[in-house]
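Handout, section B. The chain below has 345 residues.
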Amino acid sequence: MQLLDDAEKELRPIGHALSLGNIESARGRFIRRSGRYQDALMHFERAIELYKNDFSDHPNLARAMVNAAYVRRLMALDLRATANRDRARGQVNSKYLKLTREALELLKQAGEIYANHHHQSGTGSVLVNTGFLHLECGDIEKASIEADRAFRLGEEKKDLILMTRARTLQSAVNRVTSEEQIGGDEEAFVHARLAVERAGEAIDLAKRTQNRRLLAEAYIARGLAALDDQNRDMQMARQCASEAGTLLVEGDRDHLLKELDELKERILRSVGVEDTLRRWSEGQIGSKTFQQVQEEFAEIVIPRVWENLGRNTSRVSAQLSISPKKVRRLLSKAQTRALKEDRVR
C-alpha cells in the first residue's frame, strides 16, 4: 500500500488516468481481502471514474467493473445473512436487490468491453460472477447456463482458473437443486452426486495452479456437497474444512473465511442433530416428556423448512399448518440456542 501511495504521488501531477486507475484498483483488491467491502468498493468506483475519462473501452475498466460487481455481491450476501428479524427483512431485501441489480448491470457493461477485445478470461469472469448472482437470487436455471458457458470457454482456452471457478459454481448449482428437491427424490439424488463430482473436479483443477484461495474455495464447495442429505459424508466434510483452513492465512478475512465458518457450523449442527435423532430412535429421551421432545424436534425442523422456503414465515406456517407466531417463537428459540452453543465452543 505504501508503494502504491508513493507511485500515486509521482503520477498525479502527470494525470495518467490508466496508471492512477490501476493504483485504485489494486488498493481495492488488497482491502477487499481484509473484508472491508465498503472501503474496497470506494476504490473500485474511483478506478472506474479514472478509466472512463480517457480509456472508456479499456479491459482494465472492465476488470474494475467486475471487481466492483463482485464486492456488491459480497455486500449483498452479508446483508442477507444479517436479516434475522421479520421487521428488518423488508428493508434488507430492498438493499439486497438494489446491490444485486447494480452488480448485474456492471457485469453486463464489463462483458461488452471484454467482447470488443475478445478477452476470453475476462468474459469467463463475467459469466462466473453473473452465475453466482443468479443462483443467490434463486434463478437456478440461469446460473446453470452461465456456469456451463464459463466451463466451455475455460476448456477451449485451457484456462485452469476459469475451469475451476466454473466447476465450483456448477457444484453449488447442483447442491442447491438437490437441497430444494427440484424434480423429486430421484432427481435430487442425481444432483447431489453431480455436486460432489463437480467439486471434486474443481479441486483437481485447482491443484494444477498455484492459487491457494482457488483451491480453498474448491475444498469448501466439496465440504458443503458432502453435507447434502442425499449424500452425507461427515468425514469428508471435516477433511475439506481442515484442508481449506490450512490454505487460508491471517489476512484472508473476506467471504472465503465466512464460507469456511459456515461449513464448520453446518458440520457441528449436523453432528448435533444426528446424535439427537439417533438417541430418540433408540428410545433414549432421558427425563423429557413427549411434549418436550416434540418441541425440541420442532426446533430442529422448522429452521430448516424456513431456509428451504426462502426464509418466509407465512409460507412455513401454511406448509406446516401452524401459526406464524409459533414459527417465529421457535426460530427465535433455535437462534438463541445456537448463539449459546457458539459461546461455549
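Note. The chain has three domains: 1-117, 119-269, 285-344. Compare this with the example in section A.
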